[in-house]
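Morning run. Coffee first, then this:
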Amino acid sequence: MKEIGNLTKRVHFVSLGCPKNLVDSEIMAGSLMRDGYQVVGEAEDADTVIVNTCGFIDASKQESLDKIMEMAELKKKGLLQKVVVAGCLTQRYKDDLVEGLPEADLFVGSGQFQNIAKILRDSKAGAKEKRFFHLPTYLQEDATPRVNSQPRHRAYLKISEGCKKRCAFCAIPLIRGNLQSRNLSGILGEAKLLVAGGVKELIVVSHDFTDFGWDLRKQNQAARETPDELLRALADESGAEWIRVLYLYPDGVSKETLDLIGAKRNLVKYFDMPLQHINNDMLKAMNRRMARAKIEGVLKDIRDRIPEATLRTQFIVGYPGETEAHFEEMLRFVEEMQFDRVGCFMYSQEEGTKAGTLPDQIDEETKQRRHDTLMAVQKEISAKRHRALIGRRMEVLVEGVSEETELLLVGRHSQQAPDIDGVTYINDGQAEIGQMVQVEITEAMDYDLVGGIVPSDGPQ
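And here it is:
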């Protein structure tokens, strides 16, 4: 067993799922480091492993279970002392998971992870309790410790917990509860601290950015917490060079918001807008709030007001009752709209959701065929839009040396979000990690770009 003095205080995190879950892992890391723990990069070097799980769809659940069992094998071999299971899967399945995974030592839900240091202290002292659950999900406070696990030049900024929407396919409200927004002052304070620590790109995450502050305004009509006020404060006061917002649902995107994003240099012109479908019958069955005509109106407003904007969306194929005609309509829509990025999910039948009880469930083979067909169409669109960038100069944030070869640097231009979009390979010139450079695009692939560093057109 590894020791620090007389204590076994080395912890390794496995954080699965979305960036919001990653922030929870960073909060746990901050709490444990304050309590004297060292966070290590490899499970074999730790005494305690915390698997922060995802419980959103079947594939993510299976990934979580596989990782838990992998850590349990290390414990069985004597390489670990404790396996802690945290996160959404734990919160969602509670007692079932506790009973079904005797290999794990502690189970910590989304309303208790902030107490991880005390939970581990008590367990080490001999406490027998294994289950730690509470609702609602813990909402980050101004004094909450957090350690940024991302490269020094970027960080996620979580602005709320839970969700006020009730999409028929989604289990998030069952797991995370209703919307809870943070105070604007606390968010801005954290943003300033992150930037002071070297962060150049702030990535704002929530379940739906456009609902930010709704709960606070409901309690107090004078509350300043609105999406536009938050964007304005971050743009004017945080000091960040890029501010990227993820997950804007179309029903909340106003013309005023678009004009604000268009006017502020450091608000990235990047719209990650989950549409899920475009057929009106399917949208109604999904309990989405907008019909096709209004969605098209929002997309037109974005392109009219911010012509350079990047549009990313997600669709679900194989939703209960989706016919070939419904799918063909979505396929034609993708071809017409020429989105810059498209993600596609095969519908996952989730217990506890309205959609999970619907008739006319679609077989897996049909789901896979529709998924592959849609993504093949989008691949051609993405390649075409990338080819149009050849010859352009773009500001790129350098991420480091490419995993493919040490001869290439890799970075992202402002329209490439980390981990979900492609990258920009730099094959000419040198730069430091976290540096902003001008890159002239010389080659384009389906999802990635290639170019060389050129003299800057102005101050970075």
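The chain has 13 helices and 19 strands. Good start to the day.
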